[in-house]
Specification:
The chain is of the alpha/beta class. The chain contains nine helices and five strands. It has a five-stranded parallel β-sheet with strand order 2-3-1-4-5, with helices on both faces. The protein starts with a strand and ends with a helix. 40% of the residues are buried.
Length: 229
């Protein structure tokens, strides 16, 4: 089975761009590599419901309990499970643009203290045990400030799930900052997470090439480790 690598980060961090760059670099190295992006808005029943959620159909961000929102995202991956497993059988490496880590960070950001800890445990049980999704060998967090995230989201092309410039989550800057902090807490507390900074020390954006080079170096270490076991 393939090495599974998830690229994580708040909206606008460059996950899609870097996932594509990583796959291209791995192929240049002679490896079979492919990618899959979550949510799969137009491809699954749950994915379509996520689009409705992000467009405010079910209420504001604070009106939908995070446990319920988490089920939508987990369900989208469950519907995609057979596709993901097939990709893992046919490739050496599969790169994911968002995976379970996104659910953990985005939903736990809406709670505090013990409630946050319990929700993280519950989501992981649903995704990895009940839905039996494969665990990534490596999660790479592209850390980006929430303010820069807003600027980068504004530059995005029109998405197929919304006609708004920013969806329910992208438009809420304090929420994005909470999500960022939850991501960092996950990355700092888990051995299968690594952090790549999207900004320089002076707050300026690092180039796509700079970030891609660092991600490739980290990914190569994980691929070598998996290949030796």
């Amino acid at each position: 089975m393939a090495t599974l690598i998830a690229i994580e980060g708040i909206d606008g961090a460059g996950k899609g761009t870097q996932a594509a760059r990583l796959v291209a670099s791995l192929r240049d190295m002679g490896l079979k590599a492919d990618s899959l992006q979550f949510p799969r808005y137009g491809a699954t029943t749950f994915g379509s419901a996520i689009g409705d959620f992000l467009n405010g159909r079910f209420g504001s961000l604070n009106e939908v309990h995070p446990q319920l929102a988490a089920v939508l995202y987990a369900g989208d991956r469950y519907e995609s499970r057979s596709l993901l497993l097939k990709m893992m059988e046919e490739n050496d490496v599969v790169v994911l643009d968002r995976f379970v880590g996104s659910n953990l960070a985005h939903q736990s950001a809406k709670l505090d203290g013990d409630a946050r800890i319990e929700l993280i445990k519950w989501i992981e049980k649903i995704e990895f045990e009940v839905f039996a999704l494969p665990r990534p060998q490596l999660n790479i967090l592209i850390d980006m400030s929430s303010q820069m995230s807003r600027e980068l989201v504004a530059r995005k092309a029109v998405r197929d799930y919304t006609d708004q410039q920013a969806d329910l989550q992208e438009s809420d800057l304090p929420y994005l900052e909470k999500v960022r902090r939850c991501y960092l807490a996950l990355a700092h507390s888990r051995l299968d997470w690594r952090t790549v900074h999207g900004l320089k020390d002076d707050g300026a954006l690092r180039t796509i090439d700079e970030v891609a080079t660092e991600i490739l170096t980290i990914a190569q270490q994980s691929v070598r480790t998996a290949g030796s076991t």
